[in-house]
Structures are given as structure tokens and as C-alpha cells.
Amino acid sequence: MKAAVKVLYITGWCRSGSTLLGNVLGELPGVEHVGELSYLWSNGVLRTGTNPTCGCGEDLLDCGVWSKVLASLAEDDAGLQALAADWVRRHDAHLRTRHTRARLAEATGRTEPDLDVGATLGAMTSLYEAAAEVLGADVIIDSSKFPAEAAALTGLPGIDARILHLIRDPRATAYSWLRAKSYIPAMDLRRSTAYWTGFNIASEWIGGAFPRRYRRLRYEDFVAEPARVLTTLAAWAELPGAPAVGPGKTVNLGENHTVTGNPDRLRRGPVKIRPDDAWVTGLARGDAAVSTAIALPLLARYRYPLTPNARAPKTPTPGG
Q1: What are the Cα distances from residue 118, in Å, to 7, 26, 142, 197, 202?
Q2: CATH architecture group of domain 5-299
Q3: Distance CA 16, CA 36 (A)
Q4: DSSP code of residue 314
Q5: Cα(219)–Cα(230) distance, rounded to whole angstroms?
Q6: Is the pTM of this model over 0.85?
Q7: Which of 142, 164, 251, 270 shows the smallest number of beta carbons within 10 Å?
Q8: pLDDT tens by residue, 70-85
Q9: How far is CA 198 from CA 145, 279, 298, in A?
Q10: What is the pairing mode between strands 139-142 and 5-12?
Q11: Phi/psi at 118 (nearest 5 deg)?
């Protein structure tokens, strides 16, 4: 019987530091951060996404890793195009945030997936298995951040999943979304904060269903004490060793094979883990008030203050 693929899946909303967190953990032996794996099909194969470049700097179709992964899943270019189009359809039909409760119901055994959903879940497993085999990885880190994907993973027999719910202050993510970032377009503050609320609520449902396989982490705690937080995370997720954080909160990053994500994924060498507080003074008061109002139901739960310049208390551990 084939061993289950170990996956650490990062969920939550975008612009929360998942690329850096994944790349740092990906430096552990036998651990590979594949970025936002869901976009391999649209970005790499169909060319309908925002960026076809692998974290190694090559085009995804030319990358030595992803070209082999894709070749193992389809016999020729026509088959690959059909497979990619089918995956995009399946993702829209079964793995959007609105589908999180349905995927959790199946993962917990309360309902049975229909044939089309079952085929979607089988396609997820096949992709993770192929990626792990080509990369020679014991653990895959996927930072796609779709709560419904995370929910589905918890019920797949071929996957041993841990779900890391990464959170950042909603005003910080809203400020980041106001600015286009390389190939990532800007987003209206109201829309991005509404997504922040929806994605985090859906991610919380997973923790309620699978408390031992779920962990919540604030970005602010990660950058404040990276060595302690990373060591605790690695132990919880059963990753080998402890991430090396040097003096001055510096980590040394090598090559990765991430599928899309923050453009910073292309950085190599020493990288300092530091807070990004530009939003505290850069976000207009009116915009901060709007974002605060939209995210208000979750602010206290995640210990974020009403006023952006106030400091929230630290937590002793990254769980919550």
C-alpha cells in the first residue's frame, strides 16, 4: 500500500506572509514548498493566470520539476491542455470558499461525495503524489490558501494533511492590496477586507472539525519571534529538524519550485524576517475605519486592536 503524502497546507487570506513562511520551512530537509499549487494549471498550462514563472526562475513548462510532474499526468500536449481545463472547471465547481462546508461534511464522513466531486478529490491526490515523487519530498507545503481545498485534504485517504491557518491584521492586507505588486493586480479595500473575513471564517470551520490537525498563526507573532514560532510549528507539523534562523532574524533561502505567489519568492541568500508596518501610517484613516468595520466580528478573536497604531498582546505559542 502506497504511503500517504504528508502535506502542510496554508490557508487564510492572501498578502499574509505565506510565501516567506513557506520558503523558510521549505529549507528543512525533505520539505518542499510548492507555492500556490492550484494555479499550476491556469498559470503554467493554460496561460490564463497572472504568472507562468516557477520560483526557480524558469517557465513552469520548462522547469525540470514541473515539466516532469505534468508529463507524469498526461501523455501529450493535447491531453495536458484537456486535463488543465478540466481541473479549472473542477476547482470552480467544488473548491471555492463557498464549498468549504460541503467538503468538510465529506471529510468528516457525514456525507458521501458524488462522482464528480470524487474525481476532483482524486485529481488533487494525484497531483500531490506526482509532485512529492519528482521533488523527492517527504513533506509538501502548499500555500494556495483555499479553505475548501484545505477541508478536502483532511478527508483524503492518500494525504496526511496538517492545516496552518495564517492570519494578518486586515488593515495590513487591505493596504497591501491597494498597490499592484509585479504581476499581481490591486484590489479595492472593501473587497479585500470582505475576502479576509470570509476566508478566515471558512478556515475556522476546519479547526472546529479537525482541531488536532489545525493550527492558527498570526503573521505578527511569526515576524516578532521567528525562531520560537518556527520551531513550535515544525514540531506540531512533524517536520524534520528546526528552521535555522540566524542572528538578526536572518534566514538563508535557496532555490525553490513555487507555483506563483508573492514575487519575493524569487529571492535567494540571506533574508531578514521583519515586520511590515508601513500600513500603520500609510493607510488613510477613513480607509482604516472602513476595513476595521468590515472585519470587526473577527478583530477581538484574533487580538487585533480597533486602532491601527495600538499593539496587540503577544501569544506564548503560535496556536490559538
Answers
A1: 19, 30, 21, 29, 21
A2: 3-Layer(aba) Sandwich (3.40)
A3: 13
A4: P
A5: 12
A6: yes
A7: 270
A8: 999 999 999 999 999 9
A9: 12, 22, 10
A10: parallel
A11: -60, -40
